[in-house]
Design a protein that fits this description.
This protein is of the alpha/beta class and 207 residues long. The chain has two domains: 1-29 and 109-207, P-loop containing nucleotide triphosphate hydrolases (Rossmann fold, 3-Layer(aba) Sandwich); 37-94, no CATH class. 53% of the residues lie in helices and 12% in strands. The chain is built from ten helices and five strands; from the N terminus they run βαβαααααβαβααβα. It has helices spanning 16-27, 35-44, 48-55, 60-69, 76-79, 93-107, 117-120, 136-147, 151-173, 194-205; strands at 5-10, 30-32, 110-113, 127-133, 185-188. The longest helix has 23 residues, at 151-173.
């Protein structure tokens, strides 16, 4: 069966965004990343910034309650999702993001990078779930070169991003530990040249 939806999950510095772009270009598929958040915002007339807060593991309701507690009130954009009694109009923002991922997958012929789409779409037969990884040393070197920082600072950023990624998967999907078996294909970019990345994924997708 051909996989018309390709989800790319990746560790910082592993090359996942580049891989997703290469695959999309080769197949003529759409490449989706932040558009997932924008689509969710449009669905409920909520600001993109509010939805991005959820991706940082802060629920909108918790933030409103906290702000009210210190006398600040909620931001106008944040309030747009709520009825007068502060009850969510259509579930949590997390659910809105997941809904948007599913709507994007329904359209097919798409490469979705990040947003844990591999977990949200795990039950779909037409989805290829790809994990892109590399050794911490390789990732730190790539990040240092790309961002113009030293190796120590790059390693610190990668450590923080890895912790945030693990926390996101646990909070959103109950994954206490990410496993290779959560994916259909794992690509270690340490020694595989970039011109082969897309070839591996396209072959696995049966396209």
């Amino acid at each position: 069966m051909s996989r018309t939806v390709i989800c790319v999950s990746h560790a910082t510095g592993a090359g996942g965004t580049d891989l997703g772009r290469l695959v999309a270009d080769q197949l003529g598929f759409r490449l989706i990343d932040e558009e997932i958040v924008t689509r969710a915002a449009e669905n409920q007339n909520v600001s993109v910034e509010d939805l991005a807060d959820v991706e940082k593991r802060k629920s909108l309701l918790a933030r409103i309650v906290r702000e009210l507690a210190v006398g600040m009130g909620a931001a106008d954009g944040a309030m747009m999702i709520y009825a007068g009694d502060l009850q969510p109009a259509k579930g949590s923002l997390r659910e809105l993001i997941q809904q948007s991922i599913n709507e994007t997958a329904d359209e097919g012929n798409v490469v979705i990078v990040s947003h844990a789409a591999s977990y949200a779409l795990a039950d779909r037969d037409n989805v290829l779930r790809v994990l892109v990884t590399a050794s911490p040393e390789t990732r730190a070197n790539r990040l240092a070169e790309a961002e113009g920082v030293d190796g120590k600072q790059a390693a610190k950023v990668i450590g923080a991003n890895d912790a945030g990624r693990a926390d996101y998967l646990k909070r959103f999907y109950g994954a206490s530990q990410e496993s290779p078996t959560h994916y259909d294909l794992v690509v270690n970019t340490d020694r595989i040249p970039s011109d082969k990345w897309a070839e591996l994924v396209v072959s696995a997708a049966g396209l």
